[in-house]
Amino acid sequence: MNGLKSGGIMNKIDILTFNNLKFPNGVNEVIKSFWEGKEIFQEKGIALNYIYGYDGKNLQNIDRIENLKKKIIVKNKFSEIKNKINVLANDSKILSLIIIYKRFIIRAKGMILKYLKKNSDADTIIFNDLFSAYFYLKYKKNDKRKRIILILHTNGNNFEQINIYYKNQFKFLKKYFLKLEKKSLEKVDKIVFVSKRSMLNFISVFPEYNDKTTYIYNGIRDIVYDKNKKNNAGRLVRFICVGNFNKRKGQEILIKAISKIKVQLKKQIKVIFIGGGPDLENCIEMAKGLEVNKNIEFLGIKRNSEEFLKNKDIFILPSYDEGLPIAIIEAFRQGMPVISTRVGGIPEMIDEYKNGFLINPTEEDIIKIIEEILEKRYNLEELSKAAREKYLTNFTLEKMIKEYCKLIEKEGN
After folding, report:
1. pLDDT-derived band at 406, boundaries 50, 70, 90
2. What is the 3-state secondary structure (H, E, C) of the chain?
């Protein structure tokens, strides 16, 4: 079975998101993986037609996405001001409303209106957010030929990330979100989560959508893998944390935990942070205040974190909320064991004490596992081999694309 229509014509798919495709985040990395897997799609009779970002432009070339990403790496005063506004919005209903309206609603609606003018001949549209799906379904002409697949990169609670960033929201805005969610979920043909746990969380709240809900793990292309991993005996242990600096990712508790590591062990640890975001400056100041500058290095936003993951020992991500983090998959791909939290799909990724460690997002749990590692209680070489194997078994680009091919073929029949 393949995705060919009658007469041997390929099925065409469009991939849409209201995201700014130049920003380095997990959703954009998944979209990038779709493009990198276009030849696998083609083998199954499926043509990747268009990728649309929030500005309505068609990004048909992955190099175009990479070139756009470079522009956001440059630090400027505008981004600093924007980060400060986001921090203030956490406690302001009016500021939260303005930012949410501009960032989510205006962007999604504007992108969809531009997309509809293209009169795309796609057979299937894959949406990567509820907002874009909602406005498409609201403004599209009656065209039963197009199948709609909605990928939700959440833990099953579709607005939890927004609620973490913007704690103070007007009641009417929350009601609007619920309406938007209901209308979208009712009309899409298939709902896809990026982990089984997220899917089950969702179904427990929306059992009526059980039959059209599934999950597919994210996947990324492979790299040239260095098998010569060294154990941590008698040397500095290098931890790395990659992610946008915000309340959701938990960098603050990691910094506080590092400051409380036993004095005799602290000289053995180095933690590298990669990422920008609204809480970066606060974290830098916190590290200075807690006098852990010798143990911590902030590298800012990096276009290709793959290079910085090399020669590190442990990946750590103390998040409060996740779907299925691409950053963890990137770490596994490098053969790097992972310390992360029991949220979203992470427990499906980490086989405890085999390829990593599961913790709660607390200082106490972080201190405990880091000290155990520094005390040489675990063989990092064995953990590294298992981490690499986990990637090869579950999170390759080929596996992800083939699962989506099956889904598209099934929906087309």
Report:
1. very high
2. CCCCCCCCCCEEEEEECCCCCCCCCHHHHHHHHHHHCHHHHHHCCEEEEEEECCCCCECCCHHHHHHHHHHHHCCCHHHHHHHHHHHHHCCCHHHHHHHHHHHHHHHHHHHHHHHHHCCCCCCEEEECCHHHHHHHHHHCCCCCCCEEEEEECCCCCCCHHHHHHCCCCCHHHHHHHHHHHHHHHHHCCEEEECCHHHHHHHHHHCHHHHHHEEECCCCECCCCCCCCCCCCCCCCEEEEEECCCCCCCCHHHHHHHHHCCCHHHHCCEEEEEECCCCCHHHHHHHHHHCCCCCCEEECCCCCCHHHHHCCCCEEEECCCCCCCCHHHHHHHHCCCCEEEECCCCHHHHCCECCCEEEECCCHHHHHHHHHHHHCCCCCHHHHHHHHHHHHHHHCEHHHHHHHHHHHHHHHCC
Report CA-CA distances (Å) from 327 to 164, 258, 275.
20, 21, 11
Does the pLDDT of residue 71 top 50, yes or no? no
Amino acid at 12: K
The 10s digit of each residue's pLDDT in 33-44 is: 999 999 999 999
Q: pLDDT for 253-285, tens place per residue? A: 999 999 999 999 999 999 999 998 888 999 999
| Contact call for residues 399 and 219 (beta carbons, < 8 A) | yes
Tokens of 136: 């498409």
Tokens of 365: 């749990």
Residue 253 in tokens: 């508790």
pLDDT at residue 68 tops 50: no
- Quote the tokens at residue 354: 């085999």
Token pair 């992470």 is found at: 346
Helices 326-333 and 380-394 cross at an angle (nearest 10°) of 120
Distance between CA atoms of residues 257 and 370, nearest Å: 9
Q: Residue 49 phi/psi, 5° resolution?
A: -85, -70
pTM of the complete model beyond 0.85: yes
Backbone angles phi, psi at 38, to 5 degrees: -60, -30
| Rounded CA separation 361/164 (Å) | 15
Indicate if the pLDDT at residue 165 is higher than 80. Answer: no
